[in-house]
Amino acid sequence: MKEFKKRVAVVAAAMVLLPSISVFAQDGSALPTDKDKKEDESIVRFNGLGRTILQDTQLGGDVLDTDTTSSRRLTDGEFLLDLQINASPNDKTEVQSILRLRNEFGGFFGAGMSVEVRELWAAGVIANALEYRVGDMDVAMTPYTFYNFQEEGSVNLPEAFKPQRDVIYYEQFYGDGNTRRVQGAKLDFGLGFTRVLKDADFNAFVSRIRGTDFFSIPTRFTSGGQAQFSTRTINESLGMKADFGFNAVYTFDDLQSGEANRGIRNSIGTINWNFQVFKNESYALSLLGEGGWSFVEDKTDSLSFFSNGDVFVDIGFKVELRDPKVTVQGSFVDVGPDYFSMAAQSRRIDLRNQKTYYDRLGNQGNRRELLSLFDLTRDRAIYTFEINDVLMPYDPRFSNTMPYGLATPNRRGARFSAEQGVEGDAVNARLDGALMSEIRGQGTEELKDFLLLRGSADLNINDFLDWKRKQRFTLGYQYESTQRGGGEFEQIDLVSHLVELGFESELFKGFDLLLGVKFLQAEGNEYLPRIEQFNEVLDFPANTVFDDNEQLYAGGFRYMFKEGVYLTLQYHAFNSVKGQNNPNDFNLNQVFVLYNMYF
């Protein structure tokens, strides 16, 4: 304990005595500019994040009439400090670590305190040409190779719910560009050309995504690389040019680790392109897409137990109008039933994880199998950044058309989108849709048909009224329908609606009123298959019938001390009704305070 207090004292003293403070992204890179080096000769910088969150959650509803064991109220929270230490011994090398100090609410005199290294990496440049990084890193390629697609349950999230979501994103390392957090090494370099080709960018990485137990589970690695090319203007009058690239990902088990003698091999290869056909001052037309293949094998050093492969193609167009600012896209998609890409199909939400708030209800301790709007907006325990070797279970009420993102296997159809304006305009609206069907039936020769519509709009009222203080209204709506014909035991008819409404009003400088509402309605039935490794259907449980209505209301205030530093106090009320006179209906009311500081 004395040694621990000494370490904390050293950290606190360093924070007080640090000569300068800068703001860094979570991922880091902080090599100083020439101007920085003139103003600050220090090669060590201290930055980070401090957060305090306190939550009081109360259980209510019909379930309490028969539930005598569940706690009526839960109070929890945490105090944490992520101290980011960034060292640049020279202008070509950078090292960074994040030391986390955390104490759970209710912990005193060191009880409940934990100290851990949250992040550690080194990066640099070799010969002014080759960039490298080792340790923790974020990787993203294309939606069919290595990609962390968005979670379900939200279309255009109201500002009132964003503080809780930002906590989840920070804890799970969800970065911009749909990156995945892995640990390993990567290289990047580029080339410039004088004729035809303009430039080329190359990158490659290797990472360990699972350790061995030294017995039956081998160490698992994933590796990949990209070669992206851009041409000069091919035809000046038309503004014609092309971007294209090659992508490869290979995931494998190291059978030399531990006592394991059997593992998987998963390889993916794709080609992506963006061919600008025409461009002038009024509009631009491009043809874009991606196509490729996957192969997976379960084997020993010499014997194969299972192997399979498949292909996909995604071909489309994009039209961009300059005035008004309108972008329209459309594409045809065909992703084979056996297309298998672990790092693109792994979901952010794992239904198998235990929920933080009332995972079990009733005297028998029955588990809440399905997620609620309440869970999706704030429960970091159900989120993950891990790469899975099996298609994870999903909730069809929130996402049934493409539950594994664009790389969802066994889908064929069309996607489209249209957007008016850009973020920050007086009006920014977007419509997305998909009309898809299965390629191969599951448990029957009948095929499911899917219809998905998603609309969002941001309305900055202050721009119309010429007010200085922000007055912003947001809307999000999702409609999804799943249909299947056939006999009585084959038929499926499931329809769901998700609505989001938000209002943000700056009452005084830095002081905001936040209001938000989320509604979910799902009615119908669906068969959810149990999936084993390599996307193979294991069996089909009984038909699941839905008659669900959920509402989540939020209201509160936020005070912005400055960018990245704010305090918010909010009250959230959740109500769930599953069918008529259901004794398991419940509601949750939560008051929470969040103080967040980037320094």
For the termini, the CA-CA separation is: 28 Å
Assign an overall shape: globular
Taking the sheet with the most strands, its summary is: 22 strands, antiparallel, barrel
Report the portion of residues in β strands.
over 45%
- CATH class value of the largest domain: Mainly Beta
Radius of gyration: 26 Å
Topology of helices and strands:
Elements: H1 2-17, H2 34-39, E1 44-60, E2 73-90, E3 93-104, E4 113-126, E5 130-139, H3 162-171, E6 180-192, E7 197-210, E8 219-231, E9 241-254, E10 263-279, E11 283-299, E12 304-321, E13 326-335, H4 342-345, E14 360-361, E15 366-367, H5 373-378, E16 411-420, E17 427-437, E18 449-460, H6 461-465, E19 471-484, E20 492-508, E21 511-526, E22 530-531, E23 537-539, E24 544-562, E25 565-578, E26 586-598
Antiparallel strand pairs: 1-2, 1-26, 2-3, 3-4, 4-5, 5-6, 6-7, 7-8, 8-9, 9-10, 10-11, 11-12, 12-13, 13-16, 14-15, 16-17, 17-18, 18-19, 19-20, 20-21, 21-24, 22-23, 24-25, 25-26
